[in-house]
Amino acid sequence: MHAIIISIGDELLIGNTLDTNAHWISNELTQLGIDVLSRWTISDKKEVIIKNLHSAVQKADFVFITGGLGPTNDDLTIESLAVFFHQPLIFHEEIWDDIQQKHFNRKSVAKEAGKKMAFLPKNAIPIPNPKGTAPGSIYFEHDRMIVSMPGVPYEMKAMMQETVLPLIQKKYKMSAIVLSHIYTAGVGETVLSEALQDFEKNLPQNFSLAYLPSVGRVRLRISGKGDNKGELEKASYKLTQKAVSLIQRYVYSTTEPSFEAVIGQILREKKLQVGAAESCTGGYLSHLFTKIPGASDYFKGSIISYSNEIKISALNVKKETLDRYGAVSEQTVSEMLSGALTSLYVDIALAISGIAGPSGGSKEKPVGCVYIGVANRQEQYIKRLQFTNNRDLNIELSANTALVMLHIFLKKHYL
Q: Dmax of the chain from CA atoms?
């Protein structure tokens, strides 16, 4: 079965608000075995809403609409649905009583304009709003189900979880769907797809493989559909293990999506302490460590040596090294590593120095040139990398690459 999600709101189109609703709904529908064909973002104009509704019901079994249910003049979803279904708007006294009661509980008074939210098309099945005032509504046209919900994310989610999803599961017989994930780091999707080319060609007809890249990571999703969930789970497990065996060197987990959490668990289990010396990343690497609860078990801290003076005073980088080779050099990063090991009293140190941009580059060291190192008291590994012209992306790539290098270092020396 197929679905289309329609997000209504000019604030979405002009970029003032990020549409997280469609992302969340898509995930929930996928878990039920419903294929999302399209996600449309449209304006608050009545004619646009009606036109898109006509198009959606011709293509999908389910249409999910979010937004445009408030009391203001630009909230036109309900009026549009009434026109679409050729139904009059009916006032629901019980909805208006509920709206007034919610205002009373908040020590406020419902304005007369709020009555607009108590009007629904005659064929509407109201959806209670446990988190807000505007009700949602459900419509059935032949075998199709149309659902209208508020654009406020926590209100929409409550309606989906308490009313809409249980109704879909009760009313429709869905194919079973099984999803498994393989989390990789330090490799692009092109390399992975080449390594998995034969695997992908030989997948059973009811299974598919998707590549979901982000900065420094690629998540692989193996999806299977069928009538017998137990058989699907067995097949999915075997396929996942087969895929992992082909790309083992890049895989960091099949259960934990957070690369930082996986590294932290290794450090915790091995009772290792790590610290960082950061220059161009300005503390972003430390942020990646410390966003994981309990990171104090293994992360001691960092020295943000953004200036040469701090490199010299806090990390004992020699002035002669900086004068001869520059702050962005293998020699400087080597001394930053040694300084971090000593100053932070850690077992393993990371160091980053580079030219994040947009200015400051040269022919020999252009913008995006970054040196990254990892070391313990016996060995150092330092790499020169060339990233992009984008400052924010260079910072993110540098920190993520440092984690990849740390993961490789841990597997080589401690696992």
A: 83
Query: How far is 4 from 56, CA to CA, in rounded Å?
Result: 6
* CA–CA gap between residue 167 and residue 118 (Å, rounded): 22
CA–CA separation, 238 vs 260, rounded Å? 27
With H, G, I as helix, E, B as strand and everything else as coil, classify residue 147. strand
Q: What is the mean pLDDT of residues 191-212?
A: 96
Residue 110 reports pLDDT greater than 90: no
From 202, 229, 253, give the residue that closes a domain: 253
pTM beyond 0.85: the answer is no
> Do 124 and 193 fall within a single domain?
no
pLDDT at 374: 98
Q: List, in order, residues 6 or more apart from 337 with CB less than 8 Å away.
A: 277, 349, 350, 351, 373, 374, 375, 380, 382
The pLDDT value given to residue 109? 81
Instruction: Annotate 391-407 with b (16+ C-beta within 10 A) or e (fewer).
Output: beebbbbbbbbbbbbbb
**Could you list the residue range(s) of the whole structural domain that residue 27 is in?**
2-171
Tally of domains within the chain: 3
Rg value, the chain, Cα: 28
**CA 158 to CA 130: how far, in whole Å?**
7
Could you tell me the sign of the dihedral formed by the alpha carbons of 193, 221, 184, 246, in that order? negative
Q: Quickly tell me which residue has 């279904």 as its tokens.
A: 85
| pLDDT single digits (tens) 329-385 | 999 999 999 999 999 999 999 999 999 999 999 999 999 999 999 999 999 999 999
Confidence grade of residue 245 (pLDDT, cut at 50, 70, 90): very high
Q: Are 373 and 385 in contact (CB under 8 A)?
A: no
209, 229, 253 - which closes a domain:
253
- Quote helix, strand, coil % in the chain, to nearest 5: 45, 25, 30
> Using CA of residue 28, residue 242, residue 188, residue 280, what is the dihedral sign?
positive
Q: At what angle do helices 77-85 and 46-59 cross, to 10 degrees?
A: 60
Q: What is the 3-state secondary structure (H, E, C) of 387-407?
A: CCCCHHHHHHHHHHHHHHHHH
> Which of 82-91, 170-179, 356-365 bottoms out in mean pLDDT, i.e. has the lowest?
170-179
Which CATH number goes with the domain that contains 199? 3.30.70.2860
> What six digits make up the tokens of 97?
């009583």
Residues 342 and 385 in one domain: yes
What distance in Å separates the CA atoms of residue 332 and residue 296, rounded to the nearest whole number? 28
Mean pLDDT of all residues in 390-397? 96
